[in-house]
Design a protein that fits this description.
By secondary structure, the chain is mostly beta strands. The chain has one helix at 8-16, and strands at 3-5, 21-26, 32-38, 40-43, 47-50, 53-56, 60-64. β2 (21-26) and β3 form a beta hairpin. The longest helix has 9 residues, at 8-16. It is globular.
C-alpha cells in the first residue's frame, strides 16, 4: 500500500528511518509523473530535499511503499 507523506511528522519519520521516498509531480493535464526517489535529507514548510535536489511541497507528492 502506498502512503503519501504530507505532514512534518511523517517526513521526519521517513528521514529518521531512512525510508526510500518517491517524488511524484503532476503535469498540466493532471497526469502523475515519477520524478525521483531517495532518502529525505532535509525538509522545511516549503520544500523537501531528496539527495541534492529540493522539491517544492506545493508541487510535489512524496510517497513510500
Amino acid at each position: 500500500m502506498k502512503q503519501t507523506l504530507s505532514t512534518d511528522m511523517q517526513l521526519f519519520a521517513a528521514a529518521l528511518f531512512q525510508v526510500m521516498v518517491t517524488v511524484i509531480q503532476r503535469t498540466a493535464d493532471d497526469i502523475p509523473v515519477f520524478v525521483a526517489a531517495g532518502i529525505v535529507a532535509k525538509y522545511t514548510p516549503f520544500y523537501v530535499q531528496i539527495g541534492d535536489t529540493n522539491y517544492l511541497r506545493d508541487e510535489s507528492e512524496f510517497r513510500i511503499d
